[in-house]
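Re-run requested by the PI after the first attempt was lost when the workstation crashed. Everything re-entered from the original request form. Ligand of interest: zinc ion.
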Amino acid sequence: MGSNILPRLQALRAALKEKGLGGLLVSTPENRRYLSGFTGSAGYLLVTQADALLATDFRYVEQAGNQSPEFRVVHMGAGNGWFLQLLSETGARRVGFESENISVALHKRLAQALKESDGTGTGKPRLVATSNIVDELRAYKDWEEMRLLQRAIDISDGAMNSVAPTIRPGQTETEVAWRLEVAMRELGAEGPSFDTIVAAGPNGALPHHRAGDTVIQKGEPIVIDMGAKYQGYCSDLTRTIIIGTPDETFRRVYDTVLGAQLTAIATVQAGMTGAQADGLARKVIEVAGHGEQFGHSLGHGVGLAVHEFPRVGPNSPGLLQEGMAFTIEPGIYISGWGGVRIEDVVVLEKSGARVLSKAIKQDKVGG
Ligand code: ZN
Ligand code: ZN
């Protein structure tokens, strides 16, 4: 892991310099892991131009020392002494904190600690709210991340390929979800990256449906959305299948969604905004008359979190760039009937999107 940490710290330091920050207090668990390699559930990083400190409690001190050789480990006792210690050891002044993550209560405690600390006037450290500095770095995947992400993807692909052909009418959604999760575990997953979704028939039109007692029927679409976690990295995969003979609606809707997905995969380019990429698929669905029934974003970044940067939706102004990994998952949802969604993970390269998912996908079903 070590060889990947230094370039990440370097990128963060460049970002801090650009923003005029003396350091960043990192509290978001995924950002902590990304920058340090530390997998424990508690702790803070303080990264400055010259220093990298990791404060954690007694349960994790030894683990942190082993996992994060680039960091100096500080034992967090009770109270806020650890925070003052990080500041005094680094001499950091304008210190950013992750405003999307830190609680109001913790912010208050840290500000109070600063107030009570020694030093006055301009020499006194200040807390500065920041947004998504590390999250934006995480949108780009380095080779080590690509290796782990691909493993997570291979696991959910394998589980889908082995379980989907065994789904029969009469089985319940939860039964199928369980078998998918068992298959992912058997293939080496730490666990699912989110609650597995199996939505049969009309349930497929409900965006918040997970898996329940609904019995799978012949001729109904089944939306399966699942992901595996491997060494912290998350995959995300959706297939829509049907047992028996599809009806006219399914043929039409499935072919539209597939066409939209393949169009987006074939034409997305580095330098487009997330909104432009979203529009590639949305246009196909709108032309088919289903625009109102595609009520979510085309995709989202995946990595240490199952939803992360880049954003790929109708209101996403950020640019998509080479090295970013994200999902492409158009869908059409028809109340009372069900839904169709098809989702793969891609990585943007010079020549366009390379698809990382290899789960079997039904080709066009229409005539
Ligand atoms: Zn998904
Ligand atoms: Zn997704």
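Saved to the shared folder this time. Residues 225, 236, 238, 343 surround zinc ion (ligand 1) (CB under 6 Å).
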